[in-house]
Design brief:
Number of helices: 3
Helix content: 55-70%
Radius of gyration: 22 Å
Subcellular location: Cytoplasm, Cytoskeleton, Microtubule organizing center
Family: Belongs to the MOZART1 family.
Order of helices and strands: HHHEE
Oligomer: single chain
Structural class: mainly alpha
Main location: cytoplasm
Strand order of the largest sheet: 1-2
Number of strands: 2
Organism: Elysia marginata
Shape: elongated
Keywords: Cytoplasm, Cytoskeleton
Distance between the termini: 61 Å
Largest sheet: 2 strands, antiparallel
Strand content: 5-15%
């Protein structure tokens, strides 16, 4: 029998419980990301600061994705009865 098994079992059960709590709170974290966050906190990272970093990364990622997505029919708008795409309003929305 592996002497570390009880510790591993407890760690796995703890992470499973944390994952359930994470899902109930709709954090959007997957198991790997949650495990990394736990490790960072165990190594002294401030949990509140870590949460702020994650939120900021999500905001920046969403902005980046929005700027890379070419306009679609759903994103077109009517101006004075004429249909215009977002590319007419902002250079980041031009299609290549």
């Amino acid at each position: 029998m592996d002497p570390n098994q009880p510790t591993n079992v407890v760690a796995t059960e703890t992470l499973d419980i944390l994952m359930e709590i994470s899902n109930l709170l709709n954090t959007g974290l997957d198991e790997e990301t949650l495990a990394l966050c736990v490790q960072l906190c165990e190594n002294g990272v401030n949990p509140e600061a870590l949460a702020e970093v994650i939120k900021e990364l999500r905001r920046e990622s969403a902005q980046y994705k929005n700027h890379l997505t070419p306009p679609t029919i759903a994103q077109s708008t009517k101006v004075d009865g004429a249909s215009q795409t977002l590319s007419n309003f902002h250079p980041l929305f031009t299609q290549y």
